[in-house]
Amino acid sequence: MEYLLNQLVNGICQGAIYAMMAIGYSVVVGVVGMVTFTHGEVIMIGAFAAYYAFEMAGNHILLGIIFSFSAAWLVGVCVYKICYEQFFNAPRNISMLCTIGFSMVVKNLAQIVFGPNQKPMLNIVDNKIYKLGVVQISTVQIVVVITVVVSATVLSFFFNKTRWGIRLRAVSQDKTAAYMVGVNVKRTAMVGNCVGCALAGVSGMLLSIYYQTLQATMGGSLGMKAFSSSVLGGLTDIRFSALGGLCLGVIETLGITVSSASFRDIFAFIFLILMLLIRPEGFASKKGARP
Amino acid sequence: MKDKLYGVLAPVKKYGLFVAIGILALLPMVVSKTYILGLLCRVLMYATLAGSLNVINGYSGQMCIGHAGFFCIGSYVEAILATRMGISFWVLLPLAGAAAALMGLFVALPTLKMRGVYLAIITLGFSEIIRLLALNWTDVTGGAMGIKNIPVPRLGGIEFSNARTYYYIFLAIAVLFLFITRRVIRSRLGRAWMSIREDQLAARSLGVNTPAYKAVNFMYGAFWAGIIGAAYAPYARFIDSTIYTLDEGFNILSMVIVGGMGTLTGPLAGSVVINVLTELLRPIGQWRMVAYGVLIIVMMWFRPQGLIGASDSVLAGRDIKMKKSGEGAK
Question: Which residues contact B53 (CB under 8 A, 6 or more apart)?
Fold first, then answer.
């Protein structure tokens, strides 16, 4: 029981990171209206940006956040310019294949530039273990959860209170209508894509701190997990995507406890299939624009 | 002028196919280098593999990007049954295809009523799951050690143990695949697939049972991928899970895209281009995959229907849009 409770805490922490990825994913899909396969690679770029920031400039987590955020933002601009801007009126599969091509380029370039092997992440957080009754919580876990909660709050403020956020939501709901009332749709879509990517970058940094490793090929399965999580919200709803990420993290960690760690990725897949069988359009009953 | 030209070209069109097959069949006697023969084997193998993916992606407009999974199933079914039970290669060939087709049905079922994206991500996940199973289920698949010493196929007194003889197996499968697929595409089944690709709603309203046809389409594509997987295992003599990564799936996909989706000869051309390119780019090593990615993006920007694809297909995307808006302006 004790062990299971501890695993539950681990799962929630893991799920918080997945939730952040899924939030990024649903922002991208919601605002741009097209599906991305580069999300995993953006996560990887964020992790590496933080790694090099820590190595060159010093051990502070804020530094890592800033660097991974801006690096992922830049990648987001590239993704938008290459994969989306030309193809708003074309069939969806064209931009989708374009993102697949882009992810191939980024992944293999990263393997060449950063090296194909696993790298150990520096010790950013002074790791202590606190005991709350039978449950053990480490400092890293607290830092991760706090970062995710703070970013989600900032994002929610940004979406609901600022002009840019309202524009983003308008574009996400209906592009034509937004265009009619004078929103610069293409520019807004680009910003939305960049915000989603930047969140993914920060989540990549958190993941690499949490696991203490990072690798150029880590993106593939992570992108799939971000997708699986956001299916819960019909790919576009932010709150349900975050919930999906949490669920996925818990299910995965508990699943590993009863089976073997090498089956980690299989649980994401089973979760996805179950979701699609139960409620394929997601739990957020939003009418209108969907990918 | 056009009729006259057609009159001249008609016999070429009629017999060209047989001549081409004849030339291909005679090639191993002319070509002496094993290296070139190995390349030819790869081209034929990937032509069939990409062709089977093209049946799914090109003809019915679904999106399968984890084709390596079916390939993997075919290979492992052949390798396991041949090494453990000593069943003949020729029996296992259709059996592996059937196993892959069954798995294709299993993958397609949850997504039949949904749009392409879900199917795409499910096939991606599925391919990765199959690879992980092959890596971790050590009792059956040999785990990271793989399966060694897969027995070579025999027919009469001939032993298909090198590229020179194995070439004929790949050639036979490729010709059989092209022949059968051509017949299928021209049949009711193929027309139903294409109607789904062009407009699913319209097809449905005209009485096409879209879920059933989509499931059959997926099984058909998976079946041929399984067969070619089964043919690959004894050719390589050794298989392990590192062959069937997602990159392999993207590799097959890029052949289909470069050649042209929705055409029979497209994947063949794509296979030739990519495999020859692979050999030419061998000196730059790792940059090869980067080049593939750039190639896909360039194709999507300038010629989304591929090298051979027709510009009036729905796959051509931008062109058809421009034409429509132009007509509207008149």
Answer: B64, B67, B221, B225, B252, B253, B256, B267
To the nearest whole number, what is the mean pLDDT of chain B? 82
What DSSP state is assigned to residue B156? Answer: T
Distance of alpha carbon A246 from the chain centroid:
12
Task: Kindly compute the dihedral angle of the four CA atoms of residues A66, A68, A70, A72, in this order, to the nearest 10 degrees.
Answer: -160
Q: Report the b/e string of B277-293 with b at 16+ CB within 10 A.
A: ebeebeeeeeebbbbbb
**Nearest C-alpha neighbor of B303 from the set B317, B289, B324:** B317
How far, in Å, are A200, A272, B11, B123 from residue A224 at the CA level? 13, 10, 52, 11
pLDDT at residue B97 in the model: 93
B63 CB neighbours in chain A (<8 A) are 93, 96
Quick check: A93 pLDDT over 80?
no
Is there a contact between A224 and B124 if contact means CB atoms under 8 Å apart? yes
What backbone phi and psi angles, to 5 degrees, belong to B148?
A: -105, 170
Handedness of CA A54, A59, A62, A63 (dihedral sign): negative
The beta-carbon neighbor of B121 closest among A83, A111, A227 is A227
B21, two tokens: 């097959």
In this prediction the ipTM stands at 0.83
Measured distance CA(B78)–CA(B225) in Å, rounded:
13
Lowest-pLDDT choice from A109-113, A258-262, B202-206: A258-262
B63 inside 8 A of chain A by CB: yes
**pLDDT tens-place string over residues A234-256:** 777 888 888 889 989 998 888 88
* Cα(B307)–Cα(B265) distance, integer angstroms: 10
Residue A2 CB partners (closer than 8 Å, separation 6+):
A134
Q: Judge contact between B67 and B49, C-beta under 8 A.
A: yes
CB A291 within 8 A of CB A34: yes
Sign of the dihedral defined by the CA atoms of residues A187, A188, A190, A194, in that order: positive
Q: Find out whether B53 and B107 touch, Cβ atoms under 8 Å.
A: no
- Give the Cα separation of A21 and B289 in Å (integer): 26
Integer-rounded Cα radius of gyration of chain A = 18
Question: Measured between beta carbons, which residues in chain B are less than 8 angstroms from residue A104?
Answer: 247, 250, 289-290, 292-293, 296
Q: d(Cα B14, Cα A285) in Å, to the nearest integer?
A: 57
Domain extents in chain A? 20-278
pLDDT, residue B211, reads 87
pLDDT in tens, B19-61: 777 887 777 777 778 888 888 888 999 999 999 999 988 888 8
Per CATH, is A20-278 categorized as 1.10.8?
no
- Positions of E strands within chain B: 154-155, 158-159
